[in-house]
Write a structure and sequence with these properties.
This protein is α/β, with parallel strands linked by helices. It has helices at residues 2-10, 43-46, 52-60, 70-85, 100-111, 115-121, 141-155, 173-182, 193-205, 245-255, 281-289, 298-307, 319-335, 337-341, 346-364, 391-394; strands spanning 16-20, 25-27, 34-38, 64-67, 163-167, 185-190, 212-216, 228-234, 256-269, 311-317, 368-376. Bound molecules: S-adenosylmethionine (SAM).
Length: 395
Protein backbone atom coordinates (compact mmCIF):
# COMPACT_ATOMS: atom_id res chain seq x y z
CA UNK A 1 0.00 0.00 0.00
CA UNK A 2 2.79 2.35 0.89
CA UNK A 3 4.45 1.74 -2.45
CA UNK A 4 1.46 3.39 -4.19
CA UNK A 5 2.43 6.60 -2.46
CA UNK A 6 6.15 6.26 -2.60
CA UNK A 7 6.63 7.88 -6.00
CA UNK A 8 4.93 11.16 -5.13
CA UNK A 9 6.29 11.26 -1.58
CA UNK A 10 9.90 10.29 -2.09
CA UNK A 11 10.59 13.08 -4.59
CA UNK A 12 9.96 15.53 -1.70
CA UNK A 13 13.24 14.55 0.03
CA UNK A 14 12.08 15.26 3.57
CA UNK A 15 13.65 14.03 6.84
CA UNK A 16 10.47 12.02 7.35
CA UNK A 17 9.67 8.35 7.86
CA UNK A 18 6.16 7.20 6.98
CA UNK A 19 5.32 3.83 8.43
CA UNK A 20 2.32 1.52 8.50
CA UNK A 21 1.56 0.16 11.98
CA UNK A 22 3.27 -3.22 12.25
CA UNK A 23 4.25 -3.03 8.59
CA UNK A 24 6.70 -1.47 6.15
CA UNK A 25 8.10 2.04 6.35
CA UNK A 26 9.35 4.55 3.82
CA UNK A 27 12.07 7.15 4.45
CA UNK A 28 11.62 10.26 2.35
CA UNK A 29 15.18 11.39 3.01
CA UNK A 30 18.25 10.49 5.06
CA UNK A 31 18.22 10.73 8.88
CA UNK A 32 14.47 11.16 9.45
CA UNK A 33 13.71 13.51 12.35
CA UNK A 34 10.01 12.70 12.38
CA UNK A 35 7.97 9.53 11.97
CA UNK A 36 4.33 9.45 10.92
CA UNK A 37 2.92 6.10 11.82
CA UNK A 38 -0.29 5.34 9.95
CA UNK A 39 -2.71 3.47 12.21
CA UNK A 40 -5.69 3.61 9.85
CA UNK A 41 -4.86 2.36 6.30
CA UNK A 42 -7.67 4.53 4.87
CA UNK A 43 -5.50 7.50 5.73
CA UNK A 44 -3.12 6.56 2.92
CA UNK A 45 -5.64 7.98 0.50
CA UNK A 46 -5.67 11.35 2.31
CA UNK A 47 -1.90 11.48 2.12
CA UNK A 48 -2.18 12.04 -1.63
CA UNK A 49 -3.74 15.45 -0.88
CA UNK A 50 -2.35 16.16 2.59
CA UNK A 51 -3.98 19.42 3.69
CA UNK A 52 -2.95 20.53 7.17
CA UNK A 53 -6.45 20.12 8.59
CA UNK A 54 -6.58 16.51 7.37
CA UNK A 55 -3.17 15.76 8.88
CA UNK A 56 -4.12 17.45 12.14
CA UNK A 57 -7.42 15.60 12.29
CA UNK A 58 -5.71 12.25 11.71
CA UNK A 59 -3.44 13.00 14.67
CA UNK A 60 -6.16 14.11 17.08
CA UNK A 61 -8.43 11.18 16.12
CA UNK A 62 -5.50 8.79 16.67
CA UNK A 63 -5.57 7.51 13.11
CA UNK A 64 -1.93 8.53 12.95
CA UNK A 65 0.79 8.70 15.60
CA UNK A 66 3.71 11.10 15.36
CA UNK A 67 7.20 10.73 16.77
CA UNK A 68 9.77 13.51 16.99
CA UNK A 69 9.87 17.03 18.45
CA UNK A 70 6.47 18.66 17.92
CA UNK A 71 7.97 21.75 16.23
CA UNK A 72 9.71 19.45 13.73
CA UNK A 73 6.47 17.54 13.20
CA UNK A 74 4.66 20.77 12.29
CA UNK A 75 7.43 22.00 10.01
CA UNK A 76 7.75 18.70 8.14
CA UNK A 77 3.98 18.29 7.89
CA UNK A 78 3.86 21.72 6.27
CA UNK A 79 6.62 20.83 3.80
CA UNK A 80 4.85 17.59 2.97
CA UNK A 81 1.59 19.44 2.42
CA UNK A 82 3.20 22.23 0.40
CA UNK A 83 5.20 19.73 -1.67
CA UNK A 84 2.05 17.97 -2.82
CA UNK A 85 -0.53 20.77 -2.81
CA UNK A 86 1.44 23.93 -3.58
CA UNK A 87 1.40 27.14 -1.57
CA UNK A 88 -2.27 28.13 -1.68
CA UNK A 89 -4.33 30.22 0.65
CA UNK A 90 -7.73 28.93 1.66
CA UNK A 91 -10.24 30.17 -0.91
CA UNK A 92 -13.12 30.89 1.41
CA UNK A 93 -13.37 32.91 4.58
CA UNK A 94 -15.40 31.24 7.28
CA UNK A 95 -17.63 33.93 8.76
CA UNK A 96 -20.53 33.72 11.16
CA UNK A 97 -23.15 36.11 12.47
CA UNK A 98 -22.09 35.94 16.08
CA UNK A 99 -24.64 36.15 18.86
CA UNK A 100 -24.09 36.13 22.60
CA UNK A 101 -25.12 32.51 23.15
CA UNK A 102 -22.88 31.24 20.37
CA UNK A 103 -19.92 33.27 21.63
CA UNK A 104 -20.41 32.15 25.23
CA UNK A 105 -20.35 28.51 24.07
CA UNK A 106 -17.23 29.06 21.97
CA UNK A 107 -15.44 30.73 24.89
CA UNK A 108 -16.38 27.95 27.31
CA UNK A 109 -15.08 25.37 24.80
CA UNK A 110 -11.64 26.99 24.72
CA UNK A 111 -11.13 28.60 28.14
CA UNK A 112 -13.09 26.43 30.55
CA UNK A 113 -11.17 23.20 29.94
CA UNK A 114 -9.08 23.42 33.14
CA UNK A 115 -7.28 26.29 34.88
CA UNK A 116 -4.66 23.79 36.05
CA UNK A 117 -3.94 22.80 32.47
CA UNK A 118 -3.31 26.44 31.45
CA UNK A 119 -1.22 26.92 34.58
CA UNK A 120 1.16 24.19 33.35
CA UNK A 121 2.43 26.20 30.42
CA UNK A 122 1.57 29.89 30.90
CA UNK A 123 3.69 32.33 32.95
CA UNK A 124 2.94 32.73 36.70
CA UNK A 125 0.41 35.55 36.11
CA UNK A 126 -1.29 33.43 33.40
CA UNK A 127 -1.23 36.06 30.70
CA UNK A 128 -2.72 34.46 27.61
CA UNK A 129 -1.60 36.78 24.83
CA UNK A 130 1.56 37.80 23.00
CA UNK A 131 4.51 38.73 25.29
CA UNK A 132 7.03 41.49 24.58
CA UNK A 133 10.68 40.42 24.39
CA UNK A 134 12.60 43.62 25.10
CA UNK A 135 15.76 41.53 25.22
CA UNK A 136 15.08 38.75 22.70
CA UNK A 137 18.17 36.80 23.74
CA UNK A 138 17.66 36.76 27.48
CA UNK A 139 14.08 37.56 28.48
CA UNK A 140 12.20 34.64 30.04
CA UNK A 141 8.51 34.23 29.24
CA UNK A 142 7.61 35.59 32.69
CA UNK A 143 9.77 38.69 32.14
CA UNK A 144 8.44 39.21 28.62
CA UNK A 145 4.85 39.07 29.88
CA UNK A 146 5.61 41.70 32.52
CA UNK A 147 7.24 43.78 29.77
CA UNK A 148 4.07 43.46 27.69
CA UNK A 149 1.76 44.46 30.54
CA UNK A 150 3.95 47.46 31.22
CA UNK A 151 4.19 48.38 27.53
CA UNK A 152 0.38 48.49 27.39
CA UNK A 153 0.11 50.59 30.55
CA UNK A 154 2.69 53.05 29.25
CA UNK A 155 1.00 53.36 25.87
CA UNK A 156 -2.29 53.99 27.70
CA UNK A 157 -0.54 56.67 29.84
CA UNK A 158 -2.29 55.33 32.93
CA UNK A 159 -2.33 57.74 35.89
CA UNK A 160 -3.26 57.18 39.55
CA UNK A 161 -6.98 57.47 40.16
CA UNK A 162 -8.03 56.71 36.58
CA UNK A 163 -10.62 54.07 35.70
CA UNK A 164 -9.54 51.38 33.23
CA UNK A 165 -11.88 48.99 31.43
CA UNK A 166 -10.27 45.65 30.45
CA UNK A 167 -12.43 43.90 27.82
CA UNK A 168 -11.55 40.18 27.80
CA UNK A 169 -9.54 40.27 31.03
CA UNK A 170 -8.54 36.58 31.08
CA UNK A 171 -6.98 35.61 34.42
CA UNK A 172 -6.58 39.27 35.36
CA UNK A 173 -2.82 39.76 34.87
CA UNK A 174 -3.14 43.16 33.21
CA UNK A 175 -5.70 44.38 35.76
CA UNK A 176 -3.36 43.49 38.64
CA UNK A 177 -0.30 45.04 36.96
CA UNK A 178 -2.18 48.27 36.21
CA UNK A 179 -3.73 48.51 39.69
CA UNK A 180 -0.49 47.72 41.52
CA UNK A 181 1.98 49.78 39.51
CA UNK A 182 -0.18 52.58 38.09
CA UNK A 183 -2.72 53.15 40.87
CA UNK A 184 -5.77 52.80 38.62
CA UNK A 185 -9.04 51.06 39.40
CA UNK A 186 -9.98 48.37 36.92
CA UNK A 187 -13.26 46.90 35.72
CA UNK A 188 -12.62 43.73 33.73
CA UNK A 189 -14.95 41.38 31.87
CA UNK A 190 -14.62 37.81 30.60
CA UNK A 191 -17.00 35.15 29.32
CA UNK A 192 -15.10 32.31 31.00
CA UNK A 193 -16.41 31.18 34.39
CA UNK A 194 -13.21 29.27 35.20
CA UNK A 195 -11.06 32.29 34.40
CA UNK A 196 -13.21 34.57 36.49
CA UNK A 197 -13.01 32.34 39.53
CA UNK A 198 -9.24 32.01 39.46
CA UNK A 199 -8.70 35.67 38.53
CA UNK A 200 -10.72 36.76 41.58
CA UNK A 201 -8.72 34.38 43.81
CA UNK A 202 -5.47 35.84 42.49
CA UNK A 203 -6.71 39.40 43.07
CA UNK A 204 -7.60 38.51 46.66
CA UNK A 205 -4.27 36.74 47.30
CA UNK A 206 -2.47 39.85 46.12
CA UNK A 207 -4.67 42.20 48.18
CA UNK A 208 -6.07 43.97 45.11
CA UNK A 209 -9.79 43.29 45.47
CA UNK A 210 -10.57 46.90 46.35
CA UNK A 211 -9.14 48.28 43.15
CA UNK A 212 -10.25 45.53 40.72
CA UNK A 213 -13.77 44.39 39.90
CA UNK A 214 -14.11 41.48 37.47
CA UNK A 215 -17.42 40.25 36.06
CA UNK A 216 -18.77 37.58 33.77
CA UNK A 217 -20.15 39.87 31.07
CA UNK A 218 -20.37 40.10 27.32
CA UNK A 219 -18.91 43.25 25.74
CA UNK A 220 -22.33 43.86 24.16
CA UNK A 221 -23.81 44.31 27.65
CA UNK A 222 -21.48 47.11 28.74
CA UNK A 223 -23.49 50.22 29.64
CA UNK A 224 -21.91 52.69 27.21
CA UNK A 225 -21.91 55.61 29.63
CA UNK A 226 -18.40 56.95 28.99
CA UNK A 227 -17.38 56.01 32.53
CA UNK A 228 -13.76 55.05 31.80
CA UNK A 229 -10.63 57.09 31.23
CA UNK A 230 -9.01 54.28 29.25
CA UNK A 231 -10.14 51.07 27.57
CA UNK A 232 -7.95 48.08 26.72
CA UNK A 233 -8.78 44.85 24.90
CA UNK A 234 -6.07 42.21 24.59
CA UNK A 235 -6.42 39.01 22.60
CA UNK A 236 -10.19 39.36 22.52
CA UNK A 237 -11.18 40.88 19.18
CA UNK A 238 -10.34 37.59 17.41
CA UNK A 239 -13.64 36.34 18.92
CA UNK A 240 -15.76 39.23 17.64
CA UNK A 241 -16.25 38.37 13.96
CA UNK A 242 -16.33 40.62 10.90
CA UNK A 243 -20.10 41.07 11.12
CA UNK A 244 -19.82 42.59 14.59
CA UNK A 245 -16.56 44.49 14.26
CA UNK A 246 -18.15 47.88 13.79
CA UNK A 247 -20.46 47.35 16.74
CA UNK A 248 -17.56 46.13 18.88
CA UNK A 249 -15.55 49.30 18.25
CA UNK A 250 -18.67 51.41 18.85
CA UNK A 251 -18.99 49.68 22.24
CA UNK A 252 -15.36 50.55 23.07
CA UNK A 253 -15.94 54.14 21.92
CA UNK A 254 -19.06 54.43 24.06
CA UNK A 255 -17.25 53.33 27.24
CA UNK A 256 -14.45 55.89 27.14
CA UNK A 257 -14.60 59.58 28.12
CA UNK A 258 -13.87 62.17 25.43
CA UNK A 259 -10.09 62.59 25.29
CA UNK A 260 -9.59 58.99 26.54
CA UNK A 261 -7.53 56.25 24.96
CA UNK A 262 -8.51 52.87 23.51
CA UNK A 263 -5.97 50.08 22.95
CA UNK A 264 -6.87 47.08 20.80
CA UNK A 265 -4.24 44.31 20.82
CA UNK A 266 -5.10 41.35 18.59
CA UNK A 267 -4.20 38.90 15.85
CA UNK A 268 -4.74 40.15 12.30
CA UNK A 269 -5.04 38.37 8.96
CA UNK A 270 -2.31 38.35 6.34
CA UNK A 271 -4.70 39.14 3.50
CA UNK A 272 -6.95 42.17 3.27
CA UNK A 273 -10.14 40.10 2.82
CA UNK A 274 -9.27 38.12 5.94
CA UNK A 275 -9.00 34.74 4.19
CA UNK A 276 -6.76 32.32 6.06
CA UNK A 277 -3.48 31.09 4.61
CA UNK A 278 -1.94 27.69 4.42
CA UNK A 279 -3.79 24.69 3.18
CA UNK A 280 -6.29 24.04 5.91
CA UNK A 281 -4.39 25.36 8.96
CA UNK A 282 -7.07 28.03 9.48
CA UNK A 283 -9.82 25.44 9.07
CA UNK A 284 -8.24 23.27 11.77
CA UNK A 285 -7.98 26.21 14.19
CA UNK A 286 -11.60 27.21 13.52
CA UNK A 287 -12.90 23.69 13.93
CA UNK A 288 -10.95 22.55 17.00
CA UNK A 289 -9.27 25.46 18.76
CA UNK A 290 -11.20 28.72 18.46
CA UNK A 291 -14.71 27.97 17.16
CA UNK A 292 -16.09 30.96 15.24
CA UNK A 293 -12.80 32.85 15.60
CA UNK A 294 -12.14 35.32 12.77
CA UNK A 295 -9.09 37.39 11.95
CA UNK A 296 -9.73 40.75 10.31
CA UNK A 297 -6.92 42.46 8.44
CA UNK A 298 -5.23 45.46 10.12
CA UNK A 299 -6.79 47.78 7.53
CA UNK A 300 -10.28 46.45 8.35
CA UNK A 301 -9.74 46.99 12.06
CA UNK A 302 -8.45 50.52 11.50
CA UNK A 303 -11.31 51.34 9.11
CA UNK A 304 -13.90 50.15 11.66
CA UNK A 305 -12.28 52.13 14.46
CA UNK A 306 -12.17 55.25 12.32
CA UNK A 307 -15.80 54.87 11.26
CA UNK A 308 -16.77 54.80 14.93
CA UNK A 309 -14.93 58.04 15.67
CA UNK A 310 -11.72 56.65 17.15
CA UNK A 311 -8.60 58.38 15.84
CA UNK A 312 -5.81 55.83 15.36
CA UNK A 313 -2.57 57.30 16.68
CA UNK A 314 -0.11 54.37 16.86
CA UNK A 315 0.22 50.86 15.45
CA UNK A 316 2.86 48.27 16.36
CA UNK A 317 3.34 44.79 14.90
CA UNK A 318 4.46 42.13 17.39
CA UNK A 319 4.51 39.17 15.00
CA UNK A 320 7.90 37.76 15.96
CA UNK A 321 7.14 38.35 19.63
CA UNK A 322 4.11 36.09 19.26
CA UNK A 323 6.13 33.39 17.50
CA UNK A 324 8.54 33.46 20.46
CA UNK A 325 5.70 33.48 23.02
CA UNK A 326 4.08 30.44 21.41
CA UNK A 327 7.41 28.63 21.27
CA UNK A 328 7.68 29.11 25.04
CA UNK A 329 4.11 27.88 25.61
CA UNK A 330 4.64 24.86 23.37
CA UNK A 331 7.99 23.99 24.97
CA UNK A 332 6.45 24.30 28.45
CA UNK A 333 3.55 22.03 27.52
CA UNK A 334 5.79 19.44 25.84
CA UNK A 335 7.86 19.27 29.04
CA UNK A 336 4.75 18.51 31.12
CA UNK A 337 2.75 16.12 28.97
CA UNK A 338 2.29 13.55 31.71
CA UNK A 339 0.75 16.12 34.07
CA UNK A 340 -1.38 17.47 31.21
CA UNK A 341 -2.76 13.98 30.50
CA UNK A 342 -4.19 13.91 34.00
CA UNK A 343 -6.02 17.22 33.45
CA UNK A 344 -7.58 17.08 29.97
CA UNK A 345 -8.71 14.41 27.53
CA UNK A 346 -6.24 12.84 25.12
CA UNK A 347 -7.99 14.58 22.21
CA UNK A 348 -7.84 18.02 23.85
CA UNK A 349 -4.16 17.56 24.60
CA UNK A 350 -3.43 16.56 21.01
CA UNK A 351 -5.37 19.61 19.74
CA UNK A 352 -3.52 22.01 22.04
CA UNK A 353 -0.11 20.51 21.15
CA UNK A 354 -0.75 21.04 17.45
CA UNK A 355 -2.26 24.49 18.00
CA UNK A 356 0.63 25.88 20.05
CA UNK A 357 3.42 24.49 17.86
CA UNK A 358 1.47 25.25 14.68
CA UNK A 359 0.77 28.86 15.60
CA UNK A 360 4.42 29.41 16.59
CA UNK A 361 5.32 28.18 13.11
CA UNK A 362 2.56 30.23 11.47
CA UNK A 363 3.63 33.52 13.08
CA UNK A 364 7.25 32.82 12.13
CA UNK A 365 6.18 32.19 8.53
CA UNK A 366 4.05 35.37 8.37
CA UNK A 367 0.78 33.48 7.92
CA UNK A 368 -0.80 36.06 10.23
CA UNK A 369 0.25 39.06 12.27
CA UNK A 370 -0.60 40.74 15.56
CA UNK A 371 -1.04 44.46 16.10
CA UNK A 372 -1.42 46.83 19.00
CA UNK A 373 -3.59 49.67 17.74
CA UNK A 374 -3.82 52.73 19.96
CA UNK A 375 -6.60 55.23 19.35
CA UNK A 376 -7.91 58.36 21.01
CA UNK A 377 -11.50 59.52 21.32
CA UNK A 378 -11.00 63.17 20.43
CA UNK A 379 -12.48 65.93 22.58
CA UNK A 380 -15.53 67.71 21.08
CA UNK A 381 -13.32 70.37 19.43
CA UNK A 382 -11.09 67.69 17.87
CA UNK A 383 -8.07 68.14 20.13
CA UNK A 384 -6.55 65.60 22.52
CA UNK A 385 -3.88 65.62 25.20
CA UNK A 386 -1.47 62.97 23.97
CA UNK A 387 2.21 64.02 24.08
CA UNK A 388 3.57 65.30 20.78
CA UNK A 389 6.24 62.60 20.65
CA UNK A 390 6.49 58.99 21.82
CA UNK A 391 9.52 59.69 24.02
CA UNK A 392 7.52 59.14 27.22
CA UNK A 393 6.81 55.51 26.32
CA UNK A 394 10.42 54.56 25.74
CA UNK A 395 12.24 56.72 28.29
C1 LIG B 1 -7.02 35.12 24.65
S1 LIG B 1 -7.91 35.57 26.07
C2 LIG B 1 -6.96 37.00 26.56
C3 LIG B 1 -7.06 37.28 28.00
C4 LIG B 1 -6.26 38.45 28.53
N1 LIG B 1 -6.60 39.68 27.89
C5 LIG B 1 -4.78 38.18 28.44
O1 LIG B 1 -4.09 38.88 27.70
O2 LIG B 1 -4.31 37.30 29.15
C6 LIG B 1 -9.43 36.28 25.44
C7 LIG B 1 -10.38 36.81 26.49
O3 LIG B 1 -11.49 37.44 25.82
C8 LIG B 1 -12.67 37.09 26.52
N2 LIG B 1 -13.82 37.25 25.61
C9 LIG B 1 -14.01 36.69 24.41
N3 LIG B 1 -15.20 37.06 23.87
C10 LIG B 1 -15.76 37.91 24.76
C11 LIG B 1 -16.97 38.63 24.80
N4 LIG B 1 -17.88 38.53 23.82
N5 LIG B 1 -17.23 39.45 25.87
C12 LIG B 1 -16.34 39.53 26.89
N6 LIG B 1 -15.16 38.86 26.92
C13 LIG B 1 -14.88 38.05 25.88
C14 LIG B 1 -12.43 35.66 26.96
O4 LIG B 1 -13.33 35.28 27.97
C15 LIG B 1 -10.97 35.77 27.40
O5 LIG B 1 -10.94 36.26 28.73
Amino acid sequence: MLTQLSESLSKLKLPLRVSLAGGPSLDLGPDPRVTLEILDPLLLNDLRQPSLDKLGEAFIDQRMEVRGPIMDVVEIADHLSMGLLGDNSEPVCSRTTHDKAMDAEAIAYHYDISNDFYRLWLDPEMVYSCAYFRDPLHDSLAQAQINKLDHLCRKLRLKPGERLLDVGCGWGGLARHAARHYGVSVYGITLSKEQLELAREKNAEQGLEDSIELQLQDYRDLPGDQAFDKVVSVGMFEHVGHANLQHYFKMLYDQVKPGGLVMNHGITAKYVDGRPVSRGAGTFIGRYVFPHGELPHLSTAIASMSEEGLEVVDVESLRLHYARTLEHWSTNLEARLEEARALVSDKTLRIWRIYLAGCAYGFRKNWMNIHQILAVKPLPGGQHHLPWTRDDIYS
